[in-house]
Design brief:
93% of the residues lie in helices and 0% in strands. The chain has 83 residues and is mainly alpha-helical. The model has no long low-confidence stretch (mean pLDDT 87).
């Protein structure tokens, strides 16, 4: 093998090595962004669950109030005598 071919192979190896380092950097960057996205999604999911629990609690309170008011209205009607 002559020196020129050896230099060409060496240059190709260095070039391939540089490309592989670049691929590793891209993959690392992608994985970091993916992890940030997961953290953000988990955070939003937690907030949505809290909001849903608050909304459900409020709806139950309104339903209980309506039930109490309708019972009270029915009871007041039963005590009223018509003349």
């Amino acid at each position: 093998m002559n020196a020129v071919k050896f230099v060409q192979i060496e240059t190709s190896c260095v070039s391939i090595h540089e490309y592989l380092k670049q691929v590793i950097n891209f993959q690392t960057h992608f994985r970091l962004r993916e992890a940030q996205g997961r953290v953000f999604a988990d955070s939003i999911n937690g907030r949505v669950q809290v909001g849903a629990a608050i909304a459900l609690s409020s709806q139950l309170d309104v339903l209980q109030l309506r039930t109490r008011l309708s019972r009270g209205f029915r009871q007041s009607l039963s005590t009223v005598t018509l003349h």
